[in-house]
């Protein structure tokens, strides 16, 4: 079988990341093993995989590895990159039946929209969305704010403001003000 020749040799990690995707010993998209295509309903599972599944899936997995490397997934424990999302989008857009159609983002794919209506995702944690520089700036600004609020003069000012709000019933004054404004 022609497909076995490209897969039977184990790939080393150095080989995976040293060359561009075009140089891999993987079948090209839409390139099926030579010969007559077997009937998908009557062929063996091996023939079905080799003729219909692997020619599309393996280049997608190679693209997935490149994207994961680009997103630095192999450097840390946590990442915002979701491999199943990438592979879903890639396979949908590389589908031979969609050859002449434009690129579709993951959340615009019809079956993904339907799935997410019934199974909404939790929001991505802020720690995964921020770069290290943005996170350090945010942490530093909170720390500076905390240090300023600890200053005795600032504490005194905050106590005075709190006392003033309580004595003058500021919330009631604000409510009355807005009711007058709305009445005009």
Summarize this, please?
This protein is mostly helical. The chain is built from nine helices and no strands.
Quaternary state of the chains: single chain
Helix content: 55-70%
| Overall 3D shape | elongated
Strand content: under 5%
* Tally of separate helices: 9
Strand tally, please? 0
- What is the element string, with H for helices and E for strands? HHHHHHHHH
Enumerate the spans where pLDDT stays under 50 for 5 or more consecutive residues: 1-30
Domain count: the total is 2
Radius of gyration: 29 Å
The largest β sheet comes out as: none
**Secondary structure category:** mainly alpha
Mean pLDDT: 82
Question: How many angstroms separate the termini?
Answer: 86 Å
Protein name: IQCK protein
InterPro entries: IQ_motif_EF-hand-BS, IQCK
Give a description of the structure.
The chain folds into two domains: 45-122, no CATH class; 132-183, no CATH class. 61% of the residues lie in helices and 0% in strands. It is mostly helical. Helix 3 crosses helix 4 (83-93).
Task: Compile the SSE list and pairings.
Elements: H1 2-7, H2 13-18, H3 45-70, H4 83-93, H5 110-118, H6 126-129, H7 132-150, H8 152-168, H9 170-183
Helix pairs in contact: 3-4
Defining traits:
184 residues, mainly alpha
